[in-house]
Amino acid sequence: MSSILVTGASGMIGKIVVASLLSKKHKVFGTDSKPSDLIGVDPNFEFTQTEITNKAAITQLLESNRIEFLVHLANTADNDFDAFISDTEMKRSKLTDKFLYDAAVKVGCKSITILSTTQVYGIQKGRDPIRETCPEKGVSNYTNMKLDSEKALMKATKKSSTIPVIARLAPIYTAEFTQNLHQRVFDAKENVAYIYKEGEYGFSFCNLYNLVDFINGIINIPSGRYEGVYNIADTRMITAAEIVEYEKKKYRIGAVIQKNPNIVLSVNKGQMRTDYRYFDPTFTFYNWNIDNTKARRISTFRWNLSNTK
Questions:
Q1: What is the pLDDT of residues 248-292, one digit of tens each?
Q2: What DSSP character marks residue 184?
């Protein structure tokens, strides 16, 4: 049994991570600004409702409970954020990261795992799979915030025995949360789904349960030392045609039109900078193939669109 602190424990990602860790019989301490559905469900779960910026409360949790692993999910993505990332959120994240990482190192945490994003790679024009060594070309406030968080973690752990783990997460989905999938085949302005040609092109996404398995792998590793940056994405890309078929079965889209892939669209760079959910169809045929080979040394990445739950 390990002692684990999970920030953002009430979020869409956090509550699944916490439930999985509890099923492995770990002692889990959760914190979030929102209440947790898991309070009272398992005696190995203790929850503190507080803002992640509450330095005194978070530091007390780390110091009082001999925390071995920190899983930092607060200030992450999807349902836990508004779509628009302002300078306020960026400043809040930077201040939080500094005290949190320093405090975790001070109490002797074995490892710190944080969520970053594959958006830091920006638009890659080549056809080789996007590996962890590819240049970072992200241009949004969200990617800048995540890169700052990555740098802060590496700096805080540089002269310590604490292992830094950076999970660069592709857009996530579950059977019911398909917003990221839906966005790639839906024109909000026209209020209609669309595909180019037969929809044979694809994008990298991450089934939420592949992320959960990866986090369990980091915590349960029997020996060795896994550290650094990992791409967390499904092993195979999901095609536009597969997304359309899946969403139709769930009655989440109706008619689908075919668009001309040669049409020239204007890129809204201002919206790209502030709205981390924004996807411009102009970039559909660029390279979205995220390589998860390094992360598959830790977990199997067995989940996909056909067996998600």
A1: 999 898 889 998 876 555 555 556 566 666 677 778 888 999 999
A2: T
Q: What is the pLDDT of residues 1-59, one digit of tens each?
A: 899 999 999 999 999 999 999 999 999 999 999 999 999 999 999 999 999 999 999 99
CA-wise closest residue to 181 among 208, 162, 156, 146: 208
Give φ, ψ of 206 to 5 degrees: -135, 120
Q: What is the 3-state secondary structure (H, E, C) of 2-45?
A: CEEEEECCCCHHHHHHHHHHHHCCCEEEEEECCCCCCCCCCCCE
185 lies in the same domain as 265: yes
Q: For strand 192-196 and strand 186-187, is the pairing parallel, antiparallel, or unpaired?
A: antiparallel
- The pTM assigned to this predicted structure is 0.92
One domain, residues 151 and 279: no
Helices (H), 171-283: 179-183, 208-220, 240-249, 269-274
Distance CA 162, CA 108 (A): 7
Check whether residue 213 and residue 253 sit in a common domain: no
